[in-house]
């Protein structure tokens, strides 16, 4: 499972960077309200799951807390460094620890750290796909960011520029 998590997060980092580059290259996209809100949601959720598995208090940043989209991109980029460090050092025991996901209350849910991290990766993929559809509606061609494309390209590193 640890190898799969490393792949999911290597892919997530690359896919997020490709997603951001594509959105930034199309000026109407990076200013689009739906895309901006979804980008915020993606990166807020990624941070929330990482905080949970690290046993840290949740910090909820609103979209308005970022002075511009470049600041949100920096927040996203920093998250990827943080999650890579966590995964590099996480033991099997830590990944097996059970955590409560606080926004599920009725009924509550507890999952392992591995399960929480898989959810965060899948959740990000889901919303990147929504933004890709919106990008097409705005007249641009979104990048191919499927996991299989990342494997096909021999697991490229993220390029945030």
Provide structural commentary.
- With 161 residues, the protein is mainly alpha-helical.
- The protein contains seven helices and two strands.
- A two-stranded antiparallel sheet has the order 1-2.
- The chain is globular and about 45 Å long.
- The two termini are 31 Å apart.
- The model has no long low-confidence stretch (mean pLDDT 96).
What's the number of extended β-strand segments? 2
Q: Give the SSE order as H and E letters.
A: HHHHHEEHH
In CATH's first tier, which class applies? Mainly Alpha
* Strand arrangement across the biggest beta sheet: 1-2
- Outline type: globular
Approximately how much helix is present in the residues? 55-70%
Mean pLDDT across residues: 96
The total domain count is: 1
Amino- and carboxy-terminal Cα gap: 31 Å
Radius of gyration, in angstroms, nearest whole number? 16 Å
Work out the helix count. 7
Low-confidence stretches: none
- The CATH H-level superfamily is dinb family like domain
């Amino acid at each position: 499972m640890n190898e799969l998590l490393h792949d999911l997060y290597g892919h997530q980092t690359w896919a997020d960077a490709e997603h951001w580059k594509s959105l930034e290259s199309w000026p109407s996209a990076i200013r689009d309200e739906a895309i901006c809100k979804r980008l915020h949601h993606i990166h807020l959720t990624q941070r929330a799951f990482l905080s949970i598995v690290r046993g840290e208090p949740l910090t909820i940043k609103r979209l308005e807390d970022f002075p511009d989209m470049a600041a949100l991109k920096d927040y996203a980029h920093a998250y990827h460094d943080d999650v890579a460090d966590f995964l590099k050092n996480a033991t099997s025991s830590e990944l097996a620890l059970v955590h409560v996901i606080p926004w599920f209350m009725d009924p509550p849910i507890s999952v392992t750290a591995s399960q929480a991290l898989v959810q965060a990766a899948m959740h990000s993929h889901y919303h990147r796909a929504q933004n890709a559809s919106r990008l097409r509606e705005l007249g641009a061609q979104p990048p191919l960011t499927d996991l299989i494309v990342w494997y096909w390209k021999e697991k490229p590193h993220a390029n945030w520029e």
